[in-house]
Amino acid sequence: MSLPPLYALRAFEVAARLNSFSKAAEVLNITPGAVSRHVQTLEMWFDCELFKRQGPKVEVSDAGRILAGQLSESFSTIEWACRAFKSENHLLRLKAPSSLTMRWLLDVLKSFRDNHAKPKIEIASVWMDFDTVDFSREPYDCAILLGNGYFGESTESRLLFSEWLIPVCTPSLLESA
Q: Is residue 121 classed as helix, strand or coil in its secondary structure?
């Protein structure tokens, strides 16, 4: 199956996200008429209405909302791939738990930066319900995770340090026990 024009898909995704042909035109540096023509191209291609038009006002249709959601995710993936390719030798993208980042990692990375100019390190300090990373879908080169050391077939891991969990309470609670 051939694909519709990429520029039309991009114009539609931006217009759907902003719910405006004029605002999409500003973002894309084209005219509102060009955005409208790109959307019409896609409506003919898919044989469905992507926007409901009410005079100068437009509203994304149900079909358009579904397509826009898929396109938004796909364009984000393409943008991350291009960003990684452009700066692959100069940027290390790291995923780490928020608490570890605040309590330890920032100091360690400061020391590293003092001694090494490259690579630049971009940290995503995230809350993780489950410590996982999917390098094929997430925009990271490496991660610091809590676990048993096995995070999938396509990963390698090294033990950073053992974690100790220690209960802590007020002295009065201990005395009443």
A: strand
| pTM for this model (two decimals) | 0.52
pLDDT computed for residue 78 by the predictor: 86
What residue has token string 């879908």?
137
Q: Coil, strand, or helix at residue 126? A: strand
Residue 4 CB coordination number (10 Å)? 14
- The pLDDT of residue 84 is 65
pLDDT in tens, 44-91: 999 999 999 888 789 999 999 999 999 998 988 888 777 766 655 678
- Could you tell me how many helices (H) and strands (E) the chain has, helices first? 7, 5
Per DSSP, the three-state class of 136 is coil
Confidence of residue 134 (pLDDT cuts 50, 70, 90): confident
Burial class (CB in 10 A: 0-12, 13-18, 19+), 148: exposed
Residue 109 near residue 121 (C-beta atoms within 8 A): yes
